[in-house]
Amino acid sequence: MTIQQQNTNFGAQFGGRQHFLDWLRVLAFAYLAFFHTGMMFVDWPFHIESGHDSEFLKSIMILTTTWRLDLLFLVSGVAISFMMTRMTIVRFLKQRFVKLFIPLFFACAVIVAPQPYFEAVQKGIIEPGFWQFWTTQYFTGSWWEGMLTPVPTYNHMWYVAYLFVYTILLVPLFAFINSETGIAKLASLENWLTKGARILWAPFVLYLSVFFYTGNNDITHAIWDDWFGHFVYAYILILGVIFVRMPTVWQAFEDNRYKSLALALASYGVILIRYNWNTPLDIISWDLMEMIMKWSWVATLIGFAKHHLNFNNDELQYCNSIVYPFFILHQTVIICIGYYIIDWGMNGVLEFMAILIGTFIISILLIELVIKKSNILRLLFGLKLIKKEPDFALKSSSLC
């Protein structure tokens, strides 16, 4: 069987594009703007502090902090799996370099730089003056006392850095599941995994095994010292890679959505009780409950999205087209405008809403009015390049 014939068969096996996964991707990235704005309004470490500490906001963020990035890695795994059916491995790696490494390098050098700048200014570590900071201090490899990260840094772009590393390291797996042996193994796994409620507990077994082996679930977002984080994110990326080749798995999530919701709500309830009150529930491991909450909420969101959001429209297509540059921009925009808005003297709710809404407006305007107008910027922000027709083709078409 040729590669082209295999690819055609794989595409048929996938059951077509799963639009609910596109919705989950868009909504998850949009939620990051909410979450990172919220970081300024709780007492968790962040680059800019508003001086407010909202327990209500913190309760919402506790709900999502364990699984919000897991969902993105799963959807990224789905996209990778599709790409591997249409490309040779060499072409795939080139595409990943262009779409991941180039935007990552540019973001670390330019887009992320205002984040440590405003953090250092607010903390009184440096004097105001971004150009002076960027040209003489940002690329020094320093880690000033009181700062959350060294400079230069990748901050929120750690997601892209991890994704790029996993793409390289997991190439042998991608090659295996494209083989006839891999296809047969996945078919057997699909038959087993989709029976009853196995989809809710079987993938979770490996989570628990690694958790009990390591004894903690500390995630540092530092590439060289984040072993549990690498397991969690690489594992769920692999799940995305293989699940898309098992179309009935998505139906299993949908069929079990109320069971996963019950487990998700129960685990969240225990976490909230433990966080707010001293109770007998304190004997339950916090880390263990976070692990349960992680997979149960991912399964719940997939199940309900499959049931309610499996459709396409113009809004989804537009959001899909800008979601990557929006992700690259959003945290820098939040910090830049937040630095000034928190000094306006408004109450916390108004400050939060002004920063959040302002982030969406400014980011979209930058994408539409600046980034999309230049092929160089489109490359740096991971967008498709605009192919310009040759002059003679334009002249010919004008004569017709």
Outline the fold blueprint.
Elements: H1 3-13, H2 19-38, H3 55-64, H4 68-86, H5 89-111, H6 114-122, H7 130-136, H8 158-169, H9 171-177, H10 180-193, H11 198-214, H12 227-243, H13 247-255, H14 257-276, H15 286-308, H16 314-341, H17 348-369, H18 375-380, H19 391-399
Oligomer: single chain
The number of helical segments is: 19
Percentage of residues in DSSP E strands? under 5%
H/E element order = HHHHHHHHHHHHHHHHHHH
**What's the main sheet like?**
none
Low-confidence spans: 1-10, 393-400
Give an account of the 3D structure.
With 400 residues, this protein is an all-alpha fold. It has one domain. It is 71% helix and 0% strand. It has helices at residues 3-13, 19-38, 55-64, 68-86, 89-111, 114-122, 130-136, 158-169, 171-177, 180-193, 198-214, 227-243, 247-255, 257-276, 286-308, 314-341, 348-369, 375-380, 391-399. Helix 11 (198-214) runs antiparallel to helix 12 (227-243), helix 14 (257-276) packs antiparallel against helix 15 (286-308) and helix 16 crosses helix 17.
Main traits of this protein?
globular, 400 residues, mainly alpha
Summary of the model, kept short:
The protein is mainly α and 400 residues long. 71% of the residues lie in helices and 0% in strands.
